[in-house]
Predict the 3D structure of the following.
Amino acid sequence: MGYSKRIETICSLLKPATTFADVGCDHGYCSEYMLKNGLCEFAILSDISKGSLEKATMLLKDYVKNGKAKGILGNGFVGVPKDTQEVLIAGMGGEEIVAILSHERYGFMPEKFVFQPMLNPDKLRAYILDNGGFIERDYTFFADGKFYDVIVGRKRRTDEEKQSYNAWETEFGRDNIIERGEAFLARTARKKKDIDGFLNREGLQDKSREELLERKNRLQRILDNETD
Ligand SMILES: C[S@@+](CC[C@H](N)C(=O)[O-])C[C@H]1O[C@@H](n2cnc3c(N)ncnc32)[C@H](O)[C@@H]1O
């Protein structure tokens, strides 16, 4: 299909849904994948940037013309119905995704979701679990020369389904801690090496050194499989 490996990975995690919303759609490739493969009946393409939205609505102009897709220029869930079956938010910071989900007027926990936060996935995990979400998959993958986190889940159906993550799982992702996948361990080793680089710098303040050493120790415990 000619998409980047990151986009292919995200698409492979999307489930069939009657209605689908791609929030922060930019190019619109994931909506194209859903529509072309008959995985949704209707797609909302939403973006805060006019230029980005235009890219998506241009790519999907035939679907827009046929009433199978609609472009919305706006922030987060503005214009996205709360009963939308599947929501994708990819390529934004975790805090920004939390801001969208928790918006006092437009925020909601989607029926099904795929989130691919670029930063602060720990804040997003904590928010999901504390606010009616259930996480099904939560891991790191390697694509196009970079590491990415992805969180796949749905709205929690019953109180019995309430999940609790320990501190390791919240910070690094439950599937990473349990499965110790190749990409996760490679990223952990790389982060540890980066810390060594910082520690070797001259003029580092004691407090910063202490924090870095503590962080390095946590990463080493992951590599040694000592996260219990
Ligand atoms: C890095 S691009 C990612 C595009 C696509 N989702 C992907 O993963 O390839 C981020 C997109 O999100 C849009 N965006 C950022 N903040 C947003 C918000 N609060 N609401 C809607 N769109 C937003 C940007 O305009 C940009 O098009």
Remarks:
- The mean pLDDT is 96.
- The chain has two domains: 5-165, 182-223.
- Residues 182-199 form the longest helix (18 residues).
